[in-house]
Amino acid sequence: MKLVFLGPPGAGKGTQAAVVSQALGIPHISTGDMFRKAMREGTPTGLKAKAYIDQGKLVPDSVTIEMVKERLSEEDCKNGYLLDGFPRSLYQAEALAGFSQPDAVVNIAVADEKLIARLSGRRFCPKCNGTFHVSRLADEKICPDCGAELVQRADDNPATIANRLSVYHEQTSPLTAYYAQKGLLKEVDGDRPMGQVSADILKALAVEV
Ligand code: AP5
Ligand code: MG
């Protein structure tokens, strides 16, 4: 199954993609995670992306679209994929349609006021890519899954969060109508306990677990 997850920053795209990609046996492809890895490694893509990510702006399409196109051409995407964070604009959606057609698009909806609390308490594991919230961690410095030291994302500060939300509303939210019109959109309420959201997504995709 070829899937796209839409939703504002902090909606739970990454959290749910980890569960759903495992349930379906397809790779979880997060453009944000790819850029953060490139920044840690200091690659040319990482160096280009950093200035945009730090400000909460979209990384230029010339960098992003080619990166996704290459990733989807890899062997592990033959039987499907779960795209998290791409497409993020109508231009990117049209570009994707030129090299791969999604079977379904899940929109995880959460109101802005809830997102700010989620993002400011988020912790990230650079080793296993796990995502957590301080309210649910026994020790907010240690990854409960692999024991590595947790970090806070540089773009999870109040000014950048505000920019990311406005970029989302201006450029990404029109994609829900775009995919609804194609008959691909599945709407899910993301303001529920995580396990419930996972169950709702799998139900919307008609997947038995
Ligand atoms: P990206 O990494 O994609 O960030 P984002 O879209 O802002 O989304 P987040 O990763 O912040 O949130 P999420 O929805 O994954 O939520 P999570 O599961 O972590 O992109 C970062 C940057 O990269 C962009 O700003 C841009 O610069 C660049 N970029 C990426 N893709 C691009 C593209 N296509 N084009 C151009 N530029 C691009 O959950 C958040 C928190 O909430 C966690 O603490 C979690 O534990 C908690 N939580 C999750 N679910 C629940 C729940 N049900 N109840 C309570 N808490 C929950
Ligand atoms: Mg994410």
CATH homology group: P-loop containing nucleotide triphosphate hydrolases
Radius of gyration: 16 Å
Most strands sheet = 5 strands, parallel
Number of domains: 1
Write out the distinct hetero groups bound to the structure: BIS(adenosine)-5'-pentaphosphate, magnesium ion
Under CATH, the topology can be stated as: Rossmann fold
Q: What's the oligomerization state?
A: single chain
Number of helices: 9
CATH architectural grouping: 3-Layer(aba) Sandwich
The topology string of helices and strands comes to EHEHHHEHEHEEHHEH
CATH class: Alpha Beta
Estimate the mean pLDDT confidence: 96
Quick one: overall form? globular
Helix content: 40-55%
Q: What portion of residues belong to β-strands?
A: 5-15%
Major sheet strand order: 2-3-1-4-7
Distance between the termini: 15 Å
Keywords:
single chain, alpha/beta, Rossmann fold, 5-stranded parallel sheet, two-stranded antiparallel ribbon, 7 strands, globular, binds BIS(adenosine)-5'-pentaphosphate, binds magnesium ion
Describe this structure in words.
The protein is α/β, with parallel strands linked by helices and 209 residues long. The protein has one domain: Rossmann fold (3-Layer(aba) Sandwich). Helices cover 48% and strands 14% of the residues. The chain is built from nine helices and seven strands. The protein has helices at 13-24, 31-41, 44-55, 61-72, 90-99, 112-120, 158-172, 174-181, 194-204; strands at 2-6, 28-30, 81-84, 104-109, 122-124, 131-133, 185-189. The strands form two sheets. It has a five-stranded parallel β-sheet with strand order 2-3-1-4-7, sandwiched between helices. Helix 1 (13-24) packs across helix 9, helix 2 (31-41) crosses helix 3 (44-55) and helix 6 (112-120) packs across helix 7 (158-172). It is globular. The mean pLDDT is 96. Residues 13-14, 30, 32 line the site of magnesium ion.
